[in-house]
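Following up on my earlier message about EPZ. Here are the inputs again, as you asked, copied directly from the submission form:
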Amino acid sequence: MDKLQISGGVALRGEIAISGAKNAALPLLCAALLTREPVTFTHVPHLNDIGTMLRLLEQMGVKVAREAGKVGAGDTVTLDASALDNLLAPYELVKTMRAAILVLGPLVARAGEAKVSLPGGCAIGARPVDQHIKGLTAMGAEISVEHGYVHAQATRLKGARIFTDMVTVTGTENLMMAACLGAGETIIENAAREPEVVDLATCLNAMGARVSGAGSDVIRIQGVDALHGATHRVMPDRIETGTYLCAAAATGGDVRLTGTSSAYLDAVIDKLMDTGCEITAERDAIRLKAPARLNAVSIRTAPYPAFPTDMQAQFMAINAVADGTAVIRETIFENRFMHAVELIRLGADIKIDGNTAFVKGVAELQGATVMATDLRASASLVIAGLVAQGETVIERIYHLDRGYEALDQKLIALGARVARLK
Ligand code: EPZ
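Thanks, got it. Here's what our run produced:
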């Protein structure tokens, strides 16, 4: 099992390219199920989760062509779902990547049936999919949940008005994709406003769908009889962008990230400026210059456009070495503080009370061996390792490889002393 060895204390400097967004690419790949014609995606990040999704689609009969690009440019992936012949998403694949639930809506809409393993929980929470089921049921699907599988059938989905009980990103995406081939108009209220939802809607409309309102909390979809092929470029990864900005901030560095922008990171940029960082936003790049010592900043996670839960762990690492005490409230997931105990091993002063963490900045962290538990927790350990004195070894870094393309190469390009150990 790979480990990452980091010798801390180096201020990150230089320039790297940001990859395509994992959380945009995953639903986009599933959208190809909605048509018999080939769909091509460019700027697809080369990540383990993407590989898992492509394996899942391939075992359904989707023809997959994947052309590797250089790091940062992304892969070009063409999917042809004309010969769809297996409507099952098996537990073996779904348990390693929860986003596999995103085949449910497209399969029911395109083929009238789907049998998808329940994703099960993960380190950060129970992660139920009841809203996905509620919405498809409202659109007329017959759904049973037995032996750990969601079995959905529908001759043809029909338009419905759906009000999700909470804001759900993949729930919104699943229902939006399903509604594209439904009979009549579907309205999704309390919809997720994340930029990845908008990227998906843009691709669906390029395929002939009639989606409006994406990016707001009310999305309207006029169902059509069929969708056609298209080519779509995956949007930049705003969470990867935020992660490298945090790494530069924590190490007192000066970095420029290209192929990205501050467009979808206002809440994060605001908080980084509150720490004392200087941010320069360009059309297709963003630069951060950090002060010698950061001010602590309190955060409260919430659905977009508020502060993203996927950046919470990274800000806990920043606050671990900032001046003052920060209060971090996690309102989206019930167990997303797994990184705290590992940061404490590195010398951080953190107290957890329910979904609130109190982080008192310390003068410095000391390197140690720590364990990654989930994708963004791993990122916070990398940031802490970069700033800690001495050597940090992070175990189970397969979590990182799921969501960060060429992380070690990119850090080394910024001057970090990082090595991947087998
Ligand atoms: C997406 O997960 C992202 N994943 C997550 O990123 C991200 O943290 C999350 O949205 C919130 O922004 C992808 O896009 C592939 P939710 P998702 O449905 O859609 C509850 C990462 O690190 N809920 O918006 O699964 C749920 O338990 C990952 O890249 C229900 O109760 O999250 C949670 O408390 C981690 N029932 C809240 O809603 C449902 O049917 C928000 O979850 C659906 C969700």
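One observation from looking it over: Residues 75 and 158 are 36 Å apart (CA to CA). Hope that helps, and feel free to reply on this thread.
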